[in-house]
């Protein structure tokens, strides 16, 4: 819960909204329950409980929530932009290989280099079983499915090192199926692309 | 005849064999219900022990207690056992025990099928336990994603245990579901209209229909994956036109309805128990029925929410996200109707109510986190982390285990006929409740901190140590609580003092009998005119014992009950049930050999055991009905009815109808898989399509025409049609000789195989009907069997046409 990129930050905000909303609803239901328990026996208005609380209340809350989720989701999609960097990620049991559109032929094992402050599209696939690409502090996760290429948009606010993991169970080596993302400043990124020591 | 002599006569007719032999020959729903519940409880203990091993391993970072090989088997089997060998069978057991008593009848629709399902469950479960003890249990996760679960990721026998063992166990789910559906529709007490059923029967009906439509995609997926593993038919291998995503769709097409298959029976128990505990009646009966039905319908529209991270387009996700959040609405209707029920009454804090309180606290939290993960971007972050682990345990333990414990304590006086005497239950409750929240509440946070599911240990320094230690300690507290519940139940069942007949003051029919219940349930069947018959007629139990209802005279000396008209609830037929028999357990054992042959790849065993199963089935069917019609027989209260064997729509016809519903869903899932591969899988089209010539098409048209000519044309015409269609199917296989070449070829084989299997079944049925006529059965007593046979023939002919189109059209069009 220490977001270091726009996608993770938006999702973190979403989480706090969800947590506060859920807590309020829980307290409301618990309070209503306590009130119903203590209320002396007697007839009650069915429509108030079933239609008011059962139908109208959740429909209102959920409509608002869905709209919010949809807007957030749209913002996280990999849309075309002038400064997008494209990289590839290929998973296998239990390693990651990364390639770079801006430096054809350049490959790295276990470490993904990206420029900080620029959107990066990661084209994810796998050569064996299903895996999932996840850098928790930068963005959500996306699966690597055999025969398919899925594209995930990530971005780091600042240069640094970020831990990444595979997040789909893949057998005995699953725990250690990690990688690392190194976000460079503009100068470092150029140096990396031209083949100097990363 | 006085009440005591009637009791003795009926007991002699209905009782299971005495002693241990009775366990194997019984077909009585009371006994089988108890056996189901006890077996499911045993598997709950096994699953619980596995959970404790998991928590022991994760208590501290870098634990050396278990390596990944063992850990992977343990978490896979924990999920598998809890889902397939505990939750579903526990519902089945409760329904098997309760439904006839709630509905006011003497047994379930097909008593031998109950026994057959139970033994399939026991033998299939034993296979899984053997795998666990031998250290060769499945280890690919309970949802078995290929390619990890296929030959590529798991060349050993481990996944075969899952695919074959669970499919074997699912026979019990399907047979219980058919039975529950027919029982609820046709075996209610006379006069009990659908709108007057006890609410639990509604939930059981909805759940049963969901099982019939939810399980077939899983069974299909398991068969396809096993075919891929055993014979190289590449349904899930991308290089040969398969797609790993197909499994995920089929699995979750089952997997999400499964969650509601588990929750709805629990909700049924809550809707039954809560009003009694609050000394009032259920608020909004019609609304609750509508909510249960809409939950069932909606639950089939949101399987994709388990696949938000698989790269499906965002607008597609938005649809499923909306459906996923929408499912909270009928749930909310039920929750607030229950709160409203509490408000109208004055609740008592007995042990069942205490467990219901635990349900409310836990399930509401689980529901709220469920809405959270239905929001796509949030799911992208927490998918496959401990947030999901925590969420699903809140939903399943809160939404199933706690209400089932309420049900256990509520119906315990009924099971045992004794009063709860020892007070261990309250202590056990607090241990379980606090232990549960101690285990799972903080695990939400571990998930947000990035802790993935299914890792066999973790590194220190990520802020997870304290959370996991607290979770492990609390987990053991919860386990001690569950052990105490077990001790409490056993002790109270053995030594507590006799209790009164209706200890809670409930109004439903199961309390209108002495407890523990007699083998025949009701000495005579009641005429019902409201939802709470015992509130209207407090004297009803005595009236029934005096034989003032239907079928109070045991003079015909056989097991009899009534079948009613579905809508009007007027009594229509006398059903004569079979007596104790070893046939179901034999048939289940031979079915087990069939599955064992496939598991061990000793394929000579497969056809031999198939013949064995068919033989058992023939003996089974042959023993039904009498040669000569009996005409109308008196059933009491001035009414006379014919037996079901002489009716045009016997219960067996209804059973076939609902079995065909499951069968049709299976076929639909197969067509869905075909279309999915065609449109989504990367390596399509295949190198070559099957191109049936005009002769083959003519054969199909002729065969279908004859098979559909139906009853008027006579049996032999239908049989010839079936034979022609079968021949066309075999000819079609020669057009695609190698099923391992491409997923298309493999699919054609499965489609044609499906058709051939059905034609074989239809021909057998026609042969049985013809043989019965030859053996001297009258037209009246074979009428029902004939209609069953026609139903299957017509279904098979129609699906054959669809299969022919699916196989032939691509080649004809290109």
TrEMBL record, chain B:
An annotated GO cellular component: plasma membrane
Record's subcellular location: Cell membrane
Pathway: Energy metabolism; oxidative phosphorylation
GO molecular function (one): metal ion binding
Reactions catalysed: 4 Fe(II)-[cytochrome c] + O2 + 8 H(+)(in) = 4 Fe(III)-[cytochrome c] + 2 H2O + 4 H(+)(out)
Coiled coil: none
CDD domains: Ubiquinol_Oxidase_I (cd01662)
Transmembrane segments: 35-54, 74-98, 118-137, 161-187, 199-225, 259-278, 285-305, 317-342, 354-376, 388-412, 424-446, 466-491, 602-622, 657-681, 693-709, 716-736, 748-771, 792-813
Keywords from the UniProt entry: Cell membrane, Copper, Electron transport, Heme, Iron, Membrane, Metal-binding, Respiratory chain, Translocase, Transmembrane, Transmembrane helix, Transport
Cleavable signal peptide: none
GO biological process, one term: aerobic respiration
Domain Cytochrome oxidase subunit I profile, first and last residues per copy: 14-529
A Pfam family that the UniProt record links to this protein: COX1
Annotated membrane topology: Multi-pass membrane protein
Enzyme Commission identifier(s): 7.1.1.9
Lipid metabolism listed as a keyword: no
Alphabetized Gene3D superfamilies for the sequence: Cytochrome c oxidase-like, subunit I domain
Main subcellular localisation: membrane
Database matches in PROSITE patterns: COX1, COX1_CUB
NCBIfam families in the cross-refs: CtaD_CoxA (TIGR02891)
Family named by the database record: Belongs to the heme-copper respiratory oxidase family.
Cross-referenced PANTHER family: CYTOCHROME BO(3) UBIQUINOL OXIDASE SUBUNIT 1, CYTOCHROME C OXIDASE SUBUNIT 1
UniProt protein name: cytochrome-c oxidase
Organism for this UniProt entry: Marinovum algicola
């Amino acid at each position: 819960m220490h977001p270091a990129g726009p996608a993770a930050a938006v999702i973190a905000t979403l989480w706090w909204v969800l947590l506060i909303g859920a807590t309020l609803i829980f307290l409301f239901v618990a309070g209503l329950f306590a009130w119903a328990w203590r209320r002396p026996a007697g007839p009650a208005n069915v429509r108030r409980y079933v239609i008011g609380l059962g139908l109208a209340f959740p429909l209102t809350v959920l409509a608002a929530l869905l709209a919010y989720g949809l807007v957030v989701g749209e913002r996280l999609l990999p849309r075309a932009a002038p400064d997008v960097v494209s990289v590839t990620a290929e998973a296998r049991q239990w390693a990651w290989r990364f390639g770079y559109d801006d430096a054809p032929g350049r490959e790295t094992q276990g470490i993904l280099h990206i420029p900080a402050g620029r959107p990066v599209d990661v084209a994810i696939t796998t050569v064996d079983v299903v895996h999932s690409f996840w850098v928790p502090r930068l963005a959500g996760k996306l699966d690597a499915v055999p025969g398919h290429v899925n594209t995930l948009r990530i971005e780091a606010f600042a240069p640094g090192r970020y831990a990444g993991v595979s997040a789909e169970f893949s057998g005995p080596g699953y725990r250690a199926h990690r990688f690392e993302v190194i976000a460079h400043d503009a100068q470092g990124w150029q140096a990396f692309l031209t083949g100097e020591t990363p | 005849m006085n009440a005591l002599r009637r009791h003795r006569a009926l007991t002699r007719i209905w009782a299971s064999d005495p002693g241990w032999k009775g366990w194997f020959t019984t077909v009585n729903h009371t006994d089988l219900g108890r056996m189901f519940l006890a077996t499911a409880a045993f598997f709950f203990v096994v699953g619980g022990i596995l959970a404790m091993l998991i928590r022991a391993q994760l208590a501290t970072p870098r634990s050396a207690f278990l390596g990944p090989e063992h850990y992977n088997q343990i978490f896979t089997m924990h999920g598998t056992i809890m889902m397939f060998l505990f939750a579903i069978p526990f519902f089945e057991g409760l329904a098997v025990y309760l439904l006839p008593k709630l509905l006011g009848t003497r047994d379930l629709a097909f008593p031998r099928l109950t026994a057959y399902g139970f033994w399939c469950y026991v033998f299939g479960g034993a296979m899984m336990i053997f795998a666990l003890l031998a250290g060769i249990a499945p280890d690919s996760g309970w949802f078995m994603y290929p390619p990890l679960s296929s030959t590529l990721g798991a060349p050993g026998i481990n996944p075969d245990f899952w695919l074959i063992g669970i499919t074997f166990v699912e026979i019990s789910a399907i047979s219980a579901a058919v039975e529950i559906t027919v029982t609820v529709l046709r075996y209610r007490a006379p006069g009990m209209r659908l709108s007057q059923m006890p609410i639990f029967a509604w939930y059981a009906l909805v759940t049963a229909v969901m099982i019939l439509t939810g399980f077939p995609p899983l069974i299909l997926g398991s068969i396809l994956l096993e075919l891929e593993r055993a014979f190289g038919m590449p349904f899930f291998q991308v290089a040969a036109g398969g797609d790993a995503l197909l499994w995920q769709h089929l699995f979750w097409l089952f997997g999400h309805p499964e969650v509601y298959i588990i929750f709805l029976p629990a909700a049924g128990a809550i809707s039954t128990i809560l009003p009694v505990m609050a000394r009032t009646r259920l608020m909004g009966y019609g609304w609750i029925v509508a909510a249960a039905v809409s939950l069932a319908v909606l639950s089939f529209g949101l399987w994709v929410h388990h696949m938000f991270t698989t790269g499906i387009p965002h607008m597609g996700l938005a649809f499923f996200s909306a459906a996923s959040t929408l499912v909270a609405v009928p749930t909310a209707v039920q929750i607030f109707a229950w709160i409203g029920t509490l408000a109208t009454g004055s609740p008592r804090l007995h042990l069942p109510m205490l467990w219901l309180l635990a349900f409310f606290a836990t399930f509401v939290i689980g529901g709220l986190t469920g809405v959270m993960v239905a929001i796509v971007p949030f799911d992208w972050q927490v998918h496959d982390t401990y947030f999901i682990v925590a969420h699903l345990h809140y939903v399943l333990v809160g939404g199933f285990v706690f209400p089932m414990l309420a049900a256990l304590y509520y119906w315990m006086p009924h099971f045992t006929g004794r009063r709860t005497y020892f007070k261990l239950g309250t202590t056990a409750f607090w241990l379980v409740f606090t232990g549960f929240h101690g285990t799972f509440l903080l695990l939400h946070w571990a998930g947000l901190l990035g802790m993935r599911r299914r890792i066999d240990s973790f590194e220190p320094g990520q802020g997870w140590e304290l959370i996991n230690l607290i979770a492990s300690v609390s987990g053991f507290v919860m386990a001690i609580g569950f052990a105490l519940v077990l001790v409490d139940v056993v002790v109270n069942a053995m030594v507590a003092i006799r209790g009164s007949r209706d200890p809670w003051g409930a109004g439903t029919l199961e309390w209108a009998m002495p407890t523990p219940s007699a083998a025949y349930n009701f000495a005579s069947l009641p005429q019902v005119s409201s939802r709470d018959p015992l509130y209207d007629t407090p004297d009803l139990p005595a009236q029934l014992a005096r034989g003032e209802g239907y079928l109070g005279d045991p003079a015909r000396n056989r097991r009899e009950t009534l079948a009613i008209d579905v809508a009007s609830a007027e009594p229509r037929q006398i059903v004569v049930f079979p007596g104790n028999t070893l046939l179901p357990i034999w048939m289940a054992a031979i079915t087990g050999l069939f599955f064992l042959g496939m598991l061990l790849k000793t394929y000579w065993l497969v056809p031999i055991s198939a013949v064995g199963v068919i033989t058992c089935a023939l003996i089974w069917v042959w023993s039904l009905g009498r040669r000569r019609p009996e005409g109308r027989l008196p059933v009491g209260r001035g009414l006379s009815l014919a037996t079901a064997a002489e009716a045009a729509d016997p219960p067996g016809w209804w059973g076939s109808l609902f079995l065909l519903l499951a069968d049709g869903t299976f076929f639909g899932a197969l067509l869905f898989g075909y279309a999915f591969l065609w449109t989504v899988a990367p390596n399509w089209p295949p190198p070559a399509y099957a191109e049936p010539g005009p002769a083959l098409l003519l054969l199909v048209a002729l065969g279908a025409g004859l098979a559909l000519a139906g009853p008027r044309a006579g049996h032999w015409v239908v049989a010839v049609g079936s034979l022609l269609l079968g021949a066309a199917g075999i000819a079609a296989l020669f057009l695609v000789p190698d099923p391992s070449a491409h997923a298309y070829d493999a699919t054609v084989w499965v489609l044609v195989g499906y058709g051939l299997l059905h034609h074989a079944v239809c021909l057998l049925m026609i042969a049985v009907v013809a043989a019965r006529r030859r053996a001297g059965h009258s037209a009246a007593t074979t009428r029902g069997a004939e209609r069953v046979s026609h139903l299957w023939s017509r279904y098979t002919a129609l699906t054959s046409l669809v299969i022919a189109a699916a196989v032939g059209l691509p080649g004809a069009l290109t």
